Amino acid sequence: MSAGFLRGAASSFDSNQGYGRVNLDAVLAPPAPLRVDFAEGQGLQTGEMDQRTVVVATAGSALRVVMVYSDFPGPTLINNLNLVVRAPDGTVFVGNNAQPAGAFDSKNNVELVHIAQAAAGSYTVQVVASNVASGPQPFALVVQGAM
For position 141, what pLDDT does the model report? Predict the structure, then answer.
């Protein structure tokens, strides 16, 4: 079984297959030293941000942060929230971008940051409301790592 909570998703998403299928064993009972935390965010309006701290206790394991929200119906994304993760060394990761400090994803309501070998220390997880046309927009976070 894969240690990641999305089977078939080695690091990020694939535009043909999405994020893979959920690996419930890894979510409900991850192998040590991994832990999974779930959080719900209050609704955000354009320009607002939710910020949390995640402490990685043991270096070397993957850190995966997923932000998801239910968007209003429409031909494209109506509300746009963006996921930003700041590592202890200051490196910035954005949702659905394999490279640090990449471009924001304005097309998906599911965003993933995957750090293959996370350093120990405090990570800042931010959900930024870039554009909320119909809100406030609530969201959920799932974090898996050696916390």
Answer: 97
Radius of gyration of the chain (CA): 15
* Beta partners for residue 92, in sequence order: 86
| Domain with residues 37-145, CATH architecture | Sandwich (2.60)
pLDDT of 16: 56
pTM of this structure: 0.85
What whole-number distance in Å separates Cα of residue 98 and Cα of residue 53? 21
Tokens describing residue 116: 């293959």
CB 42 within 8 A of CB 80: no
What does each C-alpha distance from 95 to 30, 31, 58, 66, 67 come to in angstroms?
23, 25, 23, 8, 8
First to last CA, the chain: 20
